[in-house]
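re: ur msg from earlier - yeah i can do the nicotinamide-adenine-dinucleotide complex, just paste it... oh wait u already did. ok heres what im feeding in:
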Amino acid sequence: MSARKKVTIVGAGNVGSTTALRLADRDYADIVLVDVVEGLPQGKALDLLEAGPIRGVDTRLSGVEDYEATAGSDLVIITSGMARRPGMSRDDLVAQNAGIILTVVEQVARYSPDTILLMVSNPLDAMVHLAYRASGFPKNRVLGMAGVLDAARFRTFIAMELNVSVEDVQGFVLGGHADSMVPLARYTTVAGIPITELLPAHRIEALCKRTAAGGTEIVDLLKTGSAFYAPGTAVAAMADAILLDKKRIVPATVYLQGEYGIDDLFIGVPVKLGATGVEQIIEVKLTPDEDRALKRSAGMVRELVDTMFSRVNVDGKRADH
Ligand code: NAD
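and the outut:
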């Protein structure tokens, strides 16, 4: 048996292939790319494989249209589905992507019953919830990527504003993905100094707004798709935390059962990521304003999730809640 980890990436589109490139360069895991478009996963896997000699890495990559070759994956990253187009909200995406996620999760769970599911497809919070129900996996093995990306966007804008290295900027975000996210300025620091000490309130507010609209800003520029370089990079960082058991503290979309006063909902909070997936949910005290913003975000996510479950029939093992 190989000592190398096995990662399956479902969806060989922009985010999936960027994630594959980032992970292939790490040289600790072999990668299976899955897509429904004939030849696409095979072509991208071969192209990535041929970069190996130049990079000096022995990552094995393969591309497939069915799931047999994905069996026994340590981590499955799901990026399949449509990306947003200009004028399209995340809500518009829900119906299209829910059907795709249901069929994908069913196959993944069948071939890799012990894997960790890292969801990327939008609308993120709803798709993670759907994957949780459809897979029947325990909550520590189902999570979503959103906060690492949102925090990276926040960090980028703060570094640009202050003309400092991005390395010294730490961003803290909570809540639903993008539009309804809650950036926490109090816990956002530059070399340990809260940004509230470094920037006037109106500038912080402007940077928070730009961060929340960060996905839309890219969609409006690209016109034919949504962001993928930063998202793929964020996914790879989360894969590192899990597969290398790094115990990193990062924002992730996880299942809350009473934490932050929120029950039976997937939403973004700080967690510890390690070999078993979500190893701990970290609760921090919020001011009344911050708490209101998080509850508002949770309300928006719940509305979308309720709409989705009223339309989608989940035959998974968890139709009880
Ligand atoms: P893309 O269109 O480039 O790629 C999507 C791929 O999924 C396509 O190649 C398509 O053929 C494939 N696909 C469709 N149905 C499939 C199925 N049943 N099985 C396997 N593959 C299937 O889109 P993208 O830019 O890579 O974005 C992918 C998803 O990720 C979108 O839903 C997008 O909104 C989301 N996204 C999320 C975040 C985040 O922060 N969570 C960031 C960026 C993008």
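cool cool. The chain has a mean pLDDT of 94. ping me if u need the other ligands too
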